[in-house]
Specification:
Layout lengths: L11 E8 L6 H17 L4 E3 L27 H13 L2 E11 L2 E9 L5 E6 L5 E2 L2 E2 L14 E3 L2 E5 L8 H9 L4 E6 L2 E2 L5 H22 L3 E5 L1 E5 L5 E6 L3 E3 L5 E4 L6 E8 L2 H8 L21
Parallel strand pairs: 1-2, 2-3, 9-10, 10-12
Antiparallel strand pairs: 1-17, 3-4, 4-5, 6-7, 8-9, 11-14, 12-15, 13-14, 15-16
Helix pairs in contact: 1-2, 3-4
Length: about 300
């Protein structure tokens, strides 16, 4: 399978989004991700987005030093496996790795594989949560690269990771650095004690904030979230991941959305010229009052 390299004149870019369950078997988890990539590529995807930490059951429910044994280097086994798939399917792939940078220094890292299998770039998660069931500060050091898009043959990818998706500053800075789309590998779900109304509010908020980033920045957004009830060693539910992966356009228009209860692969063709059109009629970047935003870098103004 060989496709022409995308250029500024290309009319569309076809994006695949893979949503799947994860369990204790690391090889099986990676196999599910690879099967999703192959499915998307067979349906025309040129770029495929995987979910956060797709090789593992979500291990941040507890603080356990043994879980650091799950980490790997970048480049490493996962980038090699995904690189092989990228080369075989002629797709650009956004994956996710628990990165061991050196002894005692670990990151939650998105990796971008070019269509020839090489590592085009990485993004280390900047915002690290520490909430019940999401004790990530124990494991992950915040990223130190800033918010810079990754150059690929399919465009400049603004890759952010999960908790980053709640912060308009992250999306805006990626946009100002030239990102042509925003991509969010994610792992988010409900606490088992949440009632139906609370679950609805949380998921609606999660979708809404990301659609807001698309609107505020005039960019398409794609998000891949894991799905399923991942249980602890004593078979207690730790998180019920709500799936609902989606792709929306630069006015927040929903182009595809997965369900909340099953593995799915979505394939969406986006208009590569639409951002230019939308920004002409909604020129938010033009009208920003950059002379008056100095306080944004303060923790609080009172």
């Amino acid at each position: 399978m060989t496709r022409p390299t995308n250029t500024d004149e290309s009319a569309t870019l076809t994006i695949g989004v893979v949503q799947h369950t994860c369990g204790a078997d690391r090889k099986l988890n990676l196999a599910r991700a690879i099967a999703g990539i192959e499915d998307a590529a067979d349906r025309g995807a040129e770029l495929v987005l995987l979910q956060e930490l797709h090789n593992h059951a979500y291990f941040c429910h507890t603080e356990n030093p043994d879980n650091f044994d799950l980490a790997e280097s970048v480049p490493g086994p996962t980038t090699k496996a995904l690189g092989d798939v990228a080369r075989r399917t002629d797709t650009c792939i956004v994956g996710s790795v628990f990165e061991r940078r050196t002894a005692g220094l670990y990151h939650n890292t998105a990796v971008v594989l070019e269509r020839n299998g090489s590592v085009a770039g990485i993004y280390r998660k900047m915002h690290i949560p520490d909430d019940p069931g999401y004790q990530e500060k124990f494991y992950f050091t915040p990223g130190d690269q800033g918010f810079r898009p990754i150059e690929t043959s399919v465009g400049r990818l603004g890759v952010l990771v999960c908790w980053d998706q709640w912060y308009p500053e992250a999306a805006r800075l990626m946009t100002l650095a030239g990102a042509e789309m925003l991509l969010f590998p994610s792992a988010i779900g409900w606490d088992p004690v949440d009632d139906t109304a609370e679950r609805q509010r949380q998921r609606d908020s999660w979708v809404t904030i990301q659609r807001g980033h698309a609107i505020a920045n005039g960019l398409p957004v794609a998000c891949s979230n894991r799905v399923g009830d991942e249980q602890t060693a004593n078979h207690r539910s730790a998180s019920i991941f709500w799936g609902t992966s989606f792709v929306c356009g630069p006015q927040g228009e929903m182009m595809w959305q997965a369900g909340a209860d099953r593995s799915q692969v979505g394939v969406v063709a986006i208009d590569r010229h639409r951002s230019e059109h939308v920004r002409r009629i909604w020129p938010f970047l033009r009208d920003r009052r950059i002379d008056s935003y100095g306080d944004i870098s303060k923790r609080f103004t009172d």
